[in-house]
Task: structure prediction
Amino acid sequence: MIRVGILGPVGSGKTSLIEFLTVVYVKRGVKVGILTNDVVSAHDAMRIYRNLVERDRIIPRENLLGLVTGGCPHTAIREDPSLNIRALETLQERSNPDIVFIESGGDNVMSTFSSSLADYVIFVLDTSAGDKYPGKGGIGITESDLLVVNKIDIAPLVNADLNKMREDAQRVRRGKPNVFVSLKTGEGTTDLVKILDGELGIEELLKRGGQGK
Ligand SMILES: Nc1nc2c(ncn2[C@@H]2O[C@H](COP(=O)(O)OP(=O)(O)OP(=O)(O)O)[C@@H](O)[C@H]2O)c(=O)[nH]1
Ligand SMILES: [Mg+2]
Result:
């Protein structure tokens, strides 16, 4: 089971990314589980349930789990990830997924996953705050395995210079991968999937017998 942690500021597109990737991978025969963390509600899990379980029948309900962490979202994924680790065990017992996407509650640029919880970490930033990030840094932005800059469709509305953001991403991440996308229009998502295929070894996983839902 590959555990992919997904971090990023409130509203940057973490759930949208999980929904997109789940559809892509399930259609290719990968068995996907989803674990969401929300601070005060099970909002994201309920949304995923409505979209991917009830409406589109992409995953069975036992492949989805939502945690309500309370308090600080960092704690549940970094200082004391025991609740999440137990939830992963439950998902494994119930449906034994090939990949699990773990969404953190909305955080800031300093959030990270404990290595005991995630094997691979994606940080989702968006352009809505302009182009000062990723240049300003922050450990989540600089140390994550993949930086996804989402909502490039709205960049012109906030005068966000995407070339500056690309150069800054290269510099602060010292060459680690980044990809610029719009999960709304689909722009950049082919590159995103290509990068993740390579990073997560999806083709090898399918050859070894990933079995679909
Ligand atoms: N314009 C635009 N809107 C987007 C894009 N991706 C997501 N959104 C919208 O942005 C809002 C937030 O998206 P979510 O996927 O819920 O973001 P999130 O990071 O999971 O949010 P929290 O879990 O609340 O922190 C939603 O209204 C999405 O429809 C995009 O590429 N472009
Ligand atoms: Mg979300």
